[in-house]
Write a structure and sequence with these properties.
The complex is a heterodimer of chains A (114) and B (112).
Chain A (H helix, E strand, L loop, with lengths): L4 E3 L2 E4 L5 E6 L6 E8 L3 E9 L2 E4 L8 E7 L2 E6 L8 E8 L8 E2 L3 E5 L1
Chain B lengths: L2 E5 L2 E5 L4 E8 L3 E9 L4 E7 L6 E3 L2 E6 L4 E6 L8 E9 L6 E3 L3 E6 L1
Parallel strand pairs in B: 2-11
Antiparallel strand pairs in B: 1-3, 3-8, 4-5, 4-9, 6-7, 7-8, 9-10, 9-11
The chains are: A mainly beta (114), B mainly beta (112).
Chain lengths: 114, 112
């Protein structure tokens, strides 16, 4: 089991550019979560999906952020246009919907917007 | 507003010391509380607690939940430098939601 796979591991981009973060779920998991982590605010839930359907996107900060889950094993988080305040580590996590043992996190994407 | 508060925010101890990390919560429809350890990368799962008063133990780490007073503690005995990490507490609600509300974490540094 390869775990939750995120790419890229690091991304440095200029303000105004589009950024796409990618996540591959663990096989058999059907819930996916995008979190953002900063020193000031800790881990913040952005959006989560269950069976490919977005359930709660109330944490998405602005219209500049969008997330998709085109199939059961893959998701993208897009920021367009990016801003310096978007700099953070973005984690993707997955879980079994009927399980109760928390998430399995990916290794994260460290985004720096300059 | 639902919230999870961890204390202290940071802690520096020497190897061999015992530490207690605190997590208090104000969450509607509580279902479970989890502890994670985060080193340089992704958080890794430590414990899940659902019932009051039942201690979970793994080696030098242990945790317990008090659902009446709405808090949990994570104890680490005989600390080692490898215990240096951020320890995160997260609470899950019922009502069909799968999301966890995370605290900001306690940063533990263990000195040799």
């Amino acid at each position: 089991d390869a775990g939750v796979i995120q790419s890229p591991r690091h991304e440095v981009t200029e303000m105004g550019q589009e950024v796409t973060l990618r996540c591959k779920l663990i096989s058999g998991h059907n819930s996916l979560f995008w979190y953002r982590q900063t020193m000031m605010r800790g881990l913040e839930l952005l959006i989560y999906f269950n069976n490919n359907v977005p359930i709660d996107d109330s944490g998405m900060p602005e219209d500049r952020f969008s997330a998709k889950m085109p199939n059961a094993s893959f998701s993208t988080l897009k920021i367009q246009p990016s801003e310096p305040r978007d700099s953070a580590v973005y984690f993707c996590a997955s879980s079994l919907s009927r399980g109760n043992y928390g998430y399995t996190f990916g290794s994260g994407t460290r985004l720096t917007v300059v | 507003e639902d919230k999870v508060v961890q204390s202290p925010l940071s802690l520096v101890v020497h190897e061999g010391d015992t530490v207690t990390l605190n997590c208090s919560y104000e969450v509607t429809n509580f279902r479970s509380l989890l502890w994670y350890k985060q080193e340089k990368k992704a958080p890794t799962f430590l414990f899940m607690l659902t019932s009051s008063g039942i201690e979970k133990k793994s080696g030098r780490l242990s945790s317990i939940l008090d659902k009446k007073e709405l808090f949990s503690i994570l104890n680490i005995t005989a600390t080692q430098t490898g215990d240096s990490a951020v320890y995160l507490c997260a609470v899950r609600q019922t009502s069909g939601t799968y999301k966890y509300i995370f605290g900001t974490g306690t940063r533990l540094k263990v000195l040799a």
